[in-house]
Design a protein that fits this description.
The structure holds two protein chains of two kinds.
Chain A lengths: L1 H14 L1 H10 L3 H23 L2 H17 L10 H18 L1 H11 L15 H19 L3 H11 L5 H8 L3 H19 L4
Helix pairs in contact in A: 1-2, 2-3, 3-4, 3-5, 4-5, 5-9, 7-10, 8-10, 9-10
Chain B lengths: L9 H9 L5 H13 L1 H18 L10 H45 L12 H19 L11
Helix pairs in contact in B: 1-3, 2-3
The chains are: A mainly alpha, B mainly alpha.
Chain lengths: 198, 152
């Protein structure tokens, strides 16, 4: 059994450059941590932003994710893909944050409305185009926000992080068939809510 | 090809097709099916619409000071750990030591050490005893009293 775990660890480390970097972080290499941060900073912030729909909160949670990674470096074992571990931490934090009513109140106060700035403007769009795009994005955000938290996480990982069912299952700590069911139901809801946008 | 809508596990194929993750041969097969299956065509079109609508939602990039703030927090944590860990490690030992000392004192109060039984020689008593011994000796050396003549 132990031998098998060890073999898995060696296999993951051999296949995955991120796991290899993390093993170097474990040995005290700060440069490897900087590389991991550079690689995964944006995907994690994007995922968290779409989960909690507030930029300040998403950044705060992303800081927490990387802080936890750093603090857990000594006990890190490459038993799974690094991104699986990373997104598992991020998902846990996001789900806890969504569950926490205090954070929901913070979202309302920080948002002061549906939008919260800092979105990248297109190249010289007309006012009409901008308004149209804003309206579309608002609808998408609203449709995603209304999904149950686990369905939302599954959709975001499937759509934006391009993860396969197996990896999403490992992040959400459920079976692959449960992930497929989550995704199917989530897209069904989104199709009903966003059908008019086609 | 069987209709994925009526096949167990067919949703994988539908989702994979609309998200562009289906192998080219399987995708071509499904497209042939779509030509004559109204139900799958409607499903696929609406799913593709959702898929492309989601593209419109861009997330903001990391702010400029993100890394700096993270390293500041790491530094803070490391510093705190440096101070906190020895204290945390010592805390149980310290508590144990304090508890031991308290138990020791409580034991002392509860069961005071018995006073050592030293034999103090009282000089007066000794002298009296010696006097008594001398007196007995004198009595035993004294001649016996004469017998009563009347009894004789």
């Amino acid at each position: 059994m132990l031998e098998r775990v060890h073999t898995d660890m060696v296999a993951v480390a051999a296949l995955e450059p991120d796991a290899e970097l993390m093993l170097r972080v474990k040995e005290g290499d700060a440069q490897s941590f900087a590389l991991l941060l550079q690689r995964h900073r944006n995907p994690i912030i994007h995922f968290l932003f779409r989960m909690v729909q507030n930029q300040a909160l998403a950044e705060e949670l992303a800081q927490e994710v990387f802080l936890r990674v750093y603090k857990a470096r000594a006990s890190y074992e490459p038993t799974a893909k690094f991104t699986t571990w990373l997104f598992r931490i991020a998902t846990h934090l996001a789900l806890n944050s969504l569950r926490d009513r205090r954070n929901e109140r913070l979202i309302e106060s920080l948002n002061g409305g549906a939008e919260n700035g800092r979105e990248l403007p297109d190249e010289q769009p007309s006012v009409e185009q901008m308004l149209l795009k804003e309206a579309r994005v608002r609808e998408i955000r609203s449709a995603i926000q209304k999904l149950p938290a686990k369905q939302r996480a599954a959709v975001l990982m499937h759509k934006y992080e391009e993860m396969d069912y197996a990896q999403i299952a490992r992040v959400l700590e459920c079976s692959e068939s449960a992930v497929k069911s989550l995704l199917f139901r989530a897209y069904e809801t989104l199709r009903a809510r966003l059908a008019h946008m086609s | 090809m069987e209709c994925p809508m009526e096949t167990r596990g067919g949703e994988d194929l539908l989702l994979d097709y609309t998200s562009g993750r289906l192998a080219p041969a399987a995708a071509a097969g499904f497209e042939r099916h779509l030509e004559h299956c109204e139900r799958c065509r409607t499903w696929a079109n609406s799913q593709k619409a959702v898929w492309s609508a989601l593209e419109a939602w861009e997330a903001p990039p990391a702010p400029a000071g993100f890394d700096r703030e993270l390293y500041r927090r790491i530094e803070q944590e490391t510093h705190r750990d440096w101070w906190a860990w020895p204290a945390l490690r010592l805390r149980p030992a310290l508590s144990l030591a304090v508890a031991t000392v308290l138990v020791f004192f409580a034991f002392l109060v509860q069961f005071p050490k018995p006073a050592k039984q030293t034999e103090v020689v009282d000089a007066d008593r000794l002298e009296r005893a010696l006097d008594d011994v001398d007196m007995l000796r004198e009595l035993s050396l004294a001649p016996a009293p004469a017998s009563d003549p009347e009894q004789m």
